[in-house]
Amino acid sequence: MKILNLYACLGGNRYKWGDDHEITAVELDPELARLYQERFPNDKVIITDAHQYLLDHYKEFDFIWSSPPCPTHSRANFWASKSKEGRLKCYPDMKLYQEIIFLENWYEGKYCVENVIGYYEPLIPAKKRGRHLYWTNFALVNDLGDREFKLTQTKNEVQELCKFHKIDLSTYKGDQRKDKIARNLVDYEAGKTILDCAMNVIRKSNVKQLELL
Q: What reaction does this enzyme carry out catalytically (predicted)?
């Protein structure tokens, strides 16, 4: 199966997808793209704007996962902006909803768009699982099996998050904060469960098509 992994970061969602699929990962940060490639050498990694890449290449894939940037939607950022005088206020980034609407109306494969639970009610109904919202065109099981990391349990947060997600940020030389990178990763158990749900739907559809023949 051909999979497109947008805003790939370090591939938190992708860790348990295995190597039987043809996976293309898109990441704008060259340093994160480098670490992703080292982690998943069989994947094709492209350094470019994921939002535009989706528009240009969506027809080439059977399954698309998109995790658009979450800061302008997150409750934590909203609360921080309200509590700190002088902190810059900003509009929510509507690329999230642009992609959901586009995929729902133009894409013929299966998709999953992921984001954090926002400080406002989702403008498009979503499936809430754990601390994430998911927009999909297939059914999700209620329990994704995702593990929970307790941020308050450790003083060495980055080190513990790296251990939890099985990642290595020690050589990262980009501009993003390491704790932010590690916090934003989707748990790999949830990533595997969601892909399994999509594949089950695709398999059933293929069987029905064969029966018609």
A: a 2'-deoxycytidine in DNA + S-adenosyl-L-methionine = a 5-methyl-2'-deoxycytidine in DNA + S-adenosyl-L-homocysteine + H(+)
